[in-house]
Fold this protein.
Amino acid sequence: VRGDAAAVAELAAVVDGAVRTPRVTADGVVWELRVPHDDRLPVDAVLAWSTVTARLPGRLRPCANAECELFLLDRSRPGTAKWCSMATCGNRMKARAHAQRVRD
């Protein structure tokens, strides 16, 4: 979504159609997600995103390469990972920085 107002509005409309309802079973209360079939995947993605950001605050973030559209789940000990992949974005960005230093 990354600042795209139209995408935010579209995703909000999909998520607004989802409803969690309680169902009592012999084992206790189970919460069921009711959502139109076509909207299930985006709603599941939003719920997964929400769970990860709640359990690992600050660890799910966009790749530092502004040209990349991917996100990374930072599992490094200090929490300082920048790139979705060191092999692609990390290498490209470090090569650009090196080339810039050589030019200057």
Helices lie at 5-16, 40-55, 86-103.
